[in-house]
Amino acid sequence: MAEYDYDLFVIGAGSGGVRASRVAAAHGAKVAIAEEYRVGGTCVIRGCVPKKLLVYGAHFAEDLKDARRFGWNVPDCGFDWAVLRDNVLAEVDRLNKAYISTLDSHGVEIIHERATVSGPNEITLASGRTISAGKILIATGAHPAVPHCPGSEHGITSNEVFHLESLPRRVLIAGAGYIANEFAGIFNEFGSKVTLINRTDVILRGYDEQIRDRLLQISMTKGIDFRFHAEFKGIEKQPDGSLKVSTTNHEDLEVDCVLFATGRVPNTGDLGLAEAGVELDAKGAVVVGADNKSSVDTIYAVGDVTNRVQLTPVAIREGQAFADSVFGGKPTTVDYDCIPSAVFSHPPIAGVGLTESQAKQKYGSVRVYTSDFRAMKNVLANRNERALYKMVCTPDTGKVLGLHMIGPDAPEILQAAAVAVKAGLTKADFDQTVALHPSMAEELVLMK
């Protein structure tokens, strides 16, 4: 048997790469992982974690106002962006060190430089050093897409938004997916004037139509402007530092910051994959099978670089499955059915399973149950904002095909409910469960 420097060499120390590395090492493999930026990947360093911390910070804007209705003598409060930004970045630093410590404790060698594939069993580092490995795992993730238009260099992406020197007074956000809607809510709560533009008139494509329409309605009520059927014509920097944005079908707009949230592109550029015989799809993603293996027997890929499901928990499961299958003697595949997801907008959205539209396409007819209500806290706070819970079921057995929610704490509530949907429970099973009163979650077992 050929001898290699390592049993496994991982390129990319994000959620999927780190999990695969430490599990493979625990199975006895000699493992090295290369990371040219920081250990932790998009989620920990410049994605879900710091963004969720901003979401928490943004919630105080409404909570402080609501507190007065609950008897608290809260004065008008100012917001200091720099304090939140620096505290969030400090937490990111802590997590980065924790991830490094985890790899070290499992005996994984961390190589802090760029690595490219130079053969089925060979990696070349930026320093010029070549390394051999029995297996190579690509876990390089993805990066934000930037529209091609004159002046696009004046905009920023979700990578840079956490490092803004000051809070922009006027923000233009391009895109209508979860990143765009989350940052629209964050900046709006911080007091910025937010305008969201999109090429179509649909936000959050793939989420249930009623739920996303409710978010649009609430967002507009909160003061977020939406410009649909708008594509960039150009961005021009003005003498005062502001940005003049020209789009199709709308008047020009002056803002202080343009944030691109128009999708993500797999990080496969200049990695040497195609030259090594690895098949890539039209978007540059690594094409893999259920076993995470590419078209080259010794090269595998997990996470966003495969462009299957761009979610951190999915990347972690793929990394675990890869390591257990290849080094643990436990062939494992990931079940992509009924993956719960959330949008940490204001208010948040959460969903699992089929939307009403998807269920009708698959089953022909479905039964839909809803609960449209005002959370108790909103009632006393004198907020008219309404939550909406929706259950999609088969018409005969009542099996729950999908559960979709918008309202306070929806993601926290859905996680437990997703277990029931994944287990194939029925509407009757929900109905037979005693309500936990008074709570928002009790609406799950009271839908009509």
CATH architecture of the largest domain: 3-Layer(bba) Sandwich
- Count of separate DSSP helical elements: 11
Radius of gyration: 24 Å
Judged by helices, strands and strand pairing, the structural class is alpha/beta
Helix content: 25-40%
In CATH, the homologous superfamily of the largest domain goes by the name: FAD/NAD(P)-binding domain
Report the portion of residues in β strands.
15-25%
CATH topology of the largest domain: FAD/NAD(P)-binding domain
CA-based shape: globular
Nearest-integer average pLDDT: 96
CATH class of the largest domain: Alpha Beta
Low-confidence stretches: none
Strand count, sense and closure of the main sheet? Answer: 7 strands, mixed
Number of strands: 22
How many discrete structural domains?
A: 3
N-to-C span: 64 Å
